[in-house]
Design goal:
The complex is a heterodimer of chains A (353) and B (602).
Chain A: H1 5-18, H2 22-36, H3 40-56, H4 60-75, H5 84-94, H6 108-121, H7 126-138, H8 146-160, H9 164-177, H10 188-201, H11 205-214, H12 220-236, H13 240-251, H14 260-268, H15 277-292, H16 296-312, H17 316-329, H18 339-352
Helix pairs in contact in A: 1-2, 2-3, 2-4, 3-4, 4-5, 4-6, 5-6, 6-7, 6-8, 7-8, 8-9, 8-10, 9-10, 10-11, 10-12, 11-12, 12-13, 12-14, 14-16, 15-16, 15-17, 16-17, 16-18, 17-18
Chain B: H1 13-24, H2 30-50, E1 58-63, E2 68-73, H3 80-87, H4 94-102, H5 118-121, E3 122-130, E4 136-142, E5 146-151, E6 158-165, H6 175-186, E7 193-195, H7 207-210, H8 217-231, E8 237-245, E9 248-255, E10 267-272, E11 275-278, E12 292-298, H9 314-337, H10 339-359, H11 361-367, E13 372-375, E14 378-381, H12 382-387, E15 393-396, H13 403-410, E16 415-417, H14 423-434, E17 438-441, H15 444-450, H16 458-468, E18 473-478, E19 487-491, H17 493-501, H18 505-509, H19 512-522, E20 531-536, H20 540-547, H21 550-568, H22 574-599
Parallel strand pairs in B: 1-7, 10-12, 15-16, 15-17, 18-20
Antiparallel strand pairs in B: 1-2, 2-6, 3-4, 3-6, 4-5, 8-9, 9-12, 10-11, 13-14, 19-20
Helix pairs in contact in B: 2-6, 9-10, 9-11, 10-11, 10-14, 17-19, 20-21, 21-22
Classes of the chains: A mainly alpha (353), B alpha/beta (602).
Chain lengths: 353, 602
């Protein structure tokens, strides 16, 4: 693999311009930005024409680029990840042939796979994600952009396995090898929530808050994640009042931007919030949304916490709804990791009330 | 040993100017704007502080022979103290404190850097100023590092700034260039600006400042269109949409030029306190709005330090959102109340409007009936397509839709060309609102809709399997229209995936981690041959074959299978497969004709 993705893309754009295909060139150039900015509707509008162009010209590298960014736009905008599995596996096969394996975007398909499976059940697929990412990193030069994304995904997978120290180690290795991962680097703002999670997992709460202070989340999703993680760190430092402020900031946002998993962790740690009806209702709402969006683990965990809160508040209706969501999400978890036992307990508890 | 003591930080003027020129301001022409801004602020100050009745005016002249630029105003002028404070001390902007004290939004300056820009473009700066207090002075500086101030005989209240341009900026002493720069930045300013003594100022009065509520709509539209024609740099406008947001007003206009979907000709200028701050801020407009331009004037937006862009804070985001809403309401209004204009827009921008309709539900509902999508039978409206598609909307996602596209065409169903901009997304949205099925040609979902599986009696099934079963091919019995399509081949994509990942060859190509996940998925798929042959039990040929004697039926089956493969056109068939299919077709037909001949005693 000789070129970086962007060098290759720039060269392709130039070639298309020289061939008189200025409009297509602009659209191709702009396509990854649309995905980056999570403008999934515009991605879907542009994709059919561009993929037809790539296939008509048998430009397989361009096809990989388009299909990769389309998948990224889908999975990062709350769409159900499960229908994407056949497409991403097909892309994996496509990107590993003799005439495609050197495409700079081929490695990114690993990220597509890990993102899609993480969206379905992050802890349930963490083992497989970790294995795939470690294997990929071992064969990847740190001078290629993909190294940064794969490192980020590995930190994420290790966090999902509760291997927080290993996650920090992976971050440190990445920092040593790639300047973009360092705290002055471009990737840091994307990586910082993951590093915060690792620090919180290893009880380094103040360091996690320091990271939050230094980072500038690139979008509203990032901001919500950082607030939820700050809440967890503040709770760790027994600063409950400030933690609640952060959680309230998250709750005020659109559900589309809320990182459900981090919010659940933040609320779980703060027992004083379990008596708030608005929290219970919000958790139920998010659990329902997660179920509809195919985000099964998030839905299960949010519903489980909603049940606890609802039970404590004697809200049988909300508790029953939470149990229904747990029942609907459990079969879709890759590894239940104690979820089945948890469900049995809440079902019994519900029956007793 | 010397004792530690505090010392004053010094500034390297030459170094600071370099930073300004190379890092803060993107273009040297910005200096002209900054100096005009200072002149404007001086006039505003005079109004605020003295209540004088006077006709405000700013004059800009260029003298190419002397390589000079001269900016004059009849504003407040400066006292000697003010000269020391504001012309020779960097970072102390009078305007900022005055704006705060007077709570006036007419004052533009903020950062105390404006006058310094004179040294960016000039190697000698002279200011002749008569203050509103009655004193008058001449300030002279070479390169900003040293200066001299001397008293002079007072003239009319105001200031004249004379810049001797550096060689590389002598183009600013060219009238045409200067006029372009001043017009670009200052045309919406409230204070008349005259270039080179022209009696007509360069200022334009935007329609939103002078429209009266009870004015006839047609007059307003005419004025808006005329304004858009003057301001639009590239295209003619075909119609306008007024922009009215919190603490901001402006105008949007639609281009009179055909666009294809996804073409991005957005153009947007943003003005703060009459001064153009952001040029071609196209990202301010929605991504689908590639067919329009606009201008916004808002005093709430916060410029960056160089005043060449807007800070993307919450105010900016809110303005952006409201602009998008205005645009959608405006388009909806045109669609509903201005039919001729709407028709004109549709002729030019149908494809781009598909993108707009997808982006907003309210706009979709307002305009979808007027939009067309490309189909196998030309551009058609979605309701028209729906009326002719009893089984659901058929969408081809690839240029060659394969066997199922043939079925759709045979049935007379228009096939939506989903690989064209906006077509597939529009069809999906329409289908979801009207609870219609979508048949994505070439996909498993599409096949399941077009070729529903049926069961038949065991004897019939056995006969059909005898006639049609082949290795590496899955037989599917179905009933579908049109009946004259006897059989079709298509490839099951999931089976292809299964075959690929479960083959040992995959271990050589794919990393073990990824392969593990892939196999976990494919192992849940029941194994079948990837090539499917669908037999249409409604076909008269198939029915006749079931009643025919075996040798005739076998000959016919050969022909039917061959024609199915040829229609399939799948790359899996390959050249050899296609050639074999042709041979079998011929062999089958020959066998049938031979059998007929034998029966006729020939």
């Amino acid at each position: 693999m000789a070129d970086s993705v962007w060098t290759w893309l720039w060269r392709l754009s130039e070639e298309l311009y020289d061939m008189g295909e200025e409009d297509i060139s602009d659209k191709i150039d702009n396509f990854s930005s649309l995905a980056y900015e999570k403008d999934q509707k515009q991605v879907e509008l542009a994709f059919p024409e561009l993929i037809a162009f790539a296939r008509a010209r048998q430009n397989k590298w361009l096809e990989i680029y388009l299909r990769h960014w389309r998948l990224q736009a889908y999975v990062n905008t709350n769409h159900d990840p499960r229908p994407l599995v056949p497409e991403v596996l097909d892309l994996l096969a496509f990107a590993n042939e003799e005439d495609t394996k050197d495409c700079p975007q081929s490695t990114c398909v690993i990220d597509d796979i890990t993102d899609i499976y993480a969206a379905i059940d992050a802890p349930g697929f963490a083992l497989e994600r970790r294995a795939m990412l470690e294997e990929t990193l071992a064969n990847l030069s740190p001078h290629i952009e993909c190294y940064n994304c794969i490192t980020m995904s590995l930190v994420d997978a290790l966090n999902d396995q509760n291997e927080f120290q290993l996650a920090l180690d992976a971050f440190e290795v990445g920092k040593r090898k790639s300047s973009m991962i360092s705290e002055d680097g471009h990737f840091f703002n994307y990586l910082s929530p993951l590093v915060m999670k690792s620090l919180i997992g290893t009880k380094q709460y103040q360091r996690a808050l320091d990271i939050a202070e230094r980072s500038t989340p690139p979008n509203e999703d990032g901001r919500c994640s950082v607030w939820a993680l700050e809440a967890q760190a503040l709770t760790g430092l027994s600063n409950d009042a400030h933690a609640i402020t952060k959680i309230d900031q998250v709750l005020a946002q659109s559900p589309d931007h809320i990182n459900v998993a981090e919010l659940v962790c933040a609320v779980r740690d703060l027992s004083s919030l379990h008596t708030r009806l608005d929290i219970t209702e919000k958790l139920n709402e998010l659990a329902q949304l997660s179920l509809e969006r195919g985000r099964m683990r998030e839905g299960f965990d949010a519903a489980a916490l909603a049940f606890e809160c609802a039970s404590g508040q004697n809200r049988h209706d909300l508790a029953a709804h939470a149990v229904t969501i747990m029942e609907n999400t459990l079969p879709h978890l890759n590894r239940e990791l104690g979820a089945a036992d948890r469900l049995r307990r809440v079902q019994a508890e519900l029956q007793d009330t | 040993m010397t004792t530690a003591q505090y010392k004053r930080t010094s500034v390297d003027i030459a170094g600071l100017l370099k930073v300004l020129g190379e890092n803060l301001y993107s273009r040297p022409e910005v200096a002209v704007r900054e100096l005009i801004q200072n002149a404007s602020d001086a006039i505003s100050r005079r109004r605020l502080q003295t209540g004088d009745q006077f006709s405000p005016r700013i004059d800009i002249e260029c003298h190419a022979a002397d390589n000079q630029l001269i900016i004059s105003d009849n504003g407040s002028g400066l006292t000697d103290t003010e000269i020391e404070q504001f012309l020779t001390r960097i970072g102390t902007g009078y305007t900022r404190s005055l704006r705060r004290d007077e709570e006036s939004s007419d004052l533009i300056g903020a950062f105390g850097l404006g006058f310094l820009t004179a040294y960016m473009i000039g190697n000698r700066v002279e200011v002749i100023t008569t203050s509103q207090t009655g004193s008058a002075f001449r300030f002279l500086s070479e390169n900003g590092e040293r200066y001299i101030v001397s008293p002079i005989t007072p003239g009319d209240v105001g200031s004249v700034v004379i810049i001797s341009l550096k060689d590389k900026y002598e183009y600013l002493s060219d009238y045409g260039r200067l006029l372009d720069v001043v017009t670009e930045y200052c045309s919406l300013m409230n204070i008349p600006i005259h270039v080179q003594g022209n009696s007509e100022p360069i200022n334009k009065v935007p329609p939103w400042r002078i429209e009266a509520e009870n004015e006839p709509q047609i007059r307003k539209q005419k004025r808006r269109l005329e304004f858009a024609e003057i301001m639009e740099p590239y295209f003619d406008p075909v119609c306008t949409i007024p922009l009215d947001i919190d603490d901001g007003q402006g105008l949007l206009w639609i281009h009179d030029r055909s666009t294809y979907g996804g073409a991005d000709n957005r153009w947007m200028q943003i003005y703060v306190r009459g001064m153009m701050v952001a040029k071609n801020k196209h990202e301010f407009l929605p991504g689908w709005a590639g067919f329009l331009s606009g201008m916004l004037e808002s005093n709430s937006l916060n410029p960056t330090a160089s005043r060449e862009d807007i800070i993307k804070d919450a105010t900016y985001q809110s303005a952006r959102r409201q602009t998008a809403q205005n645009l959608i309401s405006g388009l909806t209004d045109i669609a509903q109340n201005q039919p001729e204009v709407w028709r004109s827009i549709l002729r030019r921008h149908n494809e781009a409007l598909l993108g707009a309709a997808i982006a907003d539900d309210a706009l979709f509902r307002a305009i979808y009936k007027d939009l067309t999508v490309p189909t196998s039978e030309g551009d058609l409206g979605l309701e028209d397509i729906q009326s002719r598609s009893p089984n659901g909307l058929a969408i081809a996602l690839q240029v060659d839709g394969g066997a199922d596209e043939i079925v759709s065409r045979a049935f007379g169903t228009p096939v939506i060309l989903g690989y064209r901009y906006g077509a597939a997304a529009m069809a999906h949205k329409f289908a979801s609102i009207h609870d219609l099925d979508i048949i994505e040609l070439g996909t498993k979902r599409g096949h399941d809709v077009l070729f529903p599986r049926v069961e038949t009696d065991p004897a019939t099934e056995e006969r059909l399997r005898h006639l049609f079963d082949e290795e590496d091919q899955t037989l599917i019995l179905s009933e579908f229209d049109p009946p004259f399509l006897s059989a079709l081949n298509f490839v099951d994509a999931e089976q292809s995936l299964k075959a690929y990942f479960e083959d040992d060859e995959a271990d050589k190509k794919i990393s073990q981690g990824a392969l593990g996940l892939a196999r976990a998925f494919t192992q849940k798929i029941d194994k079948q041959a990837p090539l499917h042959l669908v037999i249409n039990l409604r076909s008269p040929i198939i029915k006749a074959m079931l009643d025919a004697d075996t040798s005739d039926a076998e000959a016919c089956a050969k022909t039917v299978k061959a024609s199915a493969k040829m229609l399939c056109k799948h790359k899996a068939l390959g050249t050899h497969g296609f050639a074999t299919a042709m041979e079998n077709l011929n062999a089958g037909l020959l066998a049938m004709i031979t059998a007929m001949g034998a029966r006729n005693g020939g």
